[in-house]
């Protein structure tokens, strides 16, 4: 316990130092009337979003091979706790075993392929054993077949030979990673994160308690909806009654970390610090939008000073022309009391309302236009949207289709 407390104090100090550094850079950015930029605009042919061959390549090269975030450690904190992960295609059952290790299995009975847990994601529950609803074959939290009614009818088939199909799974920095490829080999989460691991570590996601979850949808390609999370250029126009009243539009501080990144958007209050001595600035809260390749956005921020929340958006294709976002809010250092829980729930409700009715509304309507746009139409990403440039380039590299490949 003492070691955990010491580590938390160190992370808290890291957050303070990074918050002060970010504040210093945001004040300079506002004072100079600038924003971080790419070298030039990036034109993307419409097939980057609408192409069927590209969609198939992304499913194969990314969603069926890359490590994907299935949840946070706090979603299944105790041995026997389980969650479902359906969004990548095959249904996956993730369970914490008696030994504390998190494992992932196909949510499929090895008898007649029935679905073991019939609920849908974002279901989670306690399953030290799971019994198939079809013929009552039973498996323990390590995936072993431990109950087989009428076993005599399966002579020659040893009980252990029908254990659940295990999938690569890793728990790291409070995140649970799964690959739906059973032959993909172990997941090296630290290598996957690279230097971004230090950035995510300070969020202490291993301490986060889930508060509220839900599903948002758009009639849009998943990347078209993902684009909205990486730029503040749209704040004033699209979010005029919410974040457009609290933050500068078209101002961003962009920090790439390999295939991942962090973006900060300055609040209007930053403008009041311009010209003041740094010693007179208020103590800043750490925050930011953290993008974890290929499809996760983690926002860490404060509801009020000292009271934080973590929002996790996981975006998945639902075919080439639709997407689903699994949205969850966590209390990053545990739920303090019922008032804190209520504040986190309110943060979920407010964010879900804005994202669904504003961001995803525009994404759905814009994508409908893309489907009928002229064959030579290109989406244009401005130099003032550098995070989007990086995201698209890394996705294209992972699926093996360069951005200049046109269907």
Question: Helices and strands in order, then pairings?
Answer:
Layout (H helix, E strand, L loop, with lengths): L1 H30 L10 E4 L1 H4 L1 H12 L4 E5 L8 E5 L6 E5 L5 E5 L17 E3 L2 E3 L6 E3 L4 E3 L18 E2 L1 E4 L2 E4 L10 H5 L2 H6 L7 E10 L3 H5 L8 H4 L14 E5 L2 E5 L23 E5 L3 E9 L2 E11 L5 E9 L6 H35 L5 E4 L4 H14 L8
Helix pairs in contact: 3-9
Characterise the protein shown here.
This protein is an alpha+beta fold. The protein folds into 2 domains: 2-62 and 195-399, Naphthalene 1,2-dioxygenase Alpha Subunit, Chain A, domain 1 (Alpha-Beta Complex), CATH 3.90.380.10; 68-186, Rieske [2Fe-2S] iron-sulphur domain (Rieske Iron-sulfur Protein, 3-layer Sandwich), CATH 2.102.10.10. Helices cover 28% and strands 26% of the residues. The strands form 5 sheets. Strands 13-19-18-17-16-15-14 form a 7-stranded antiparallel beta sheet, with helices on both faces. A 5-stranded antiparallel beta sheet has the order 6-3-4-5-10, with no helix packed on it. Strand 17 (296-304) and strand 18 form a beta hairpin. Helix 3 (52-63) crosses helix 9. The longest helix has 35 residues, at 338-372. The chain is globular and about 80 Å long. The N and C termini lie far apart (57 Å). The model has no long low-confidence stretch (mean pLDDT 95).
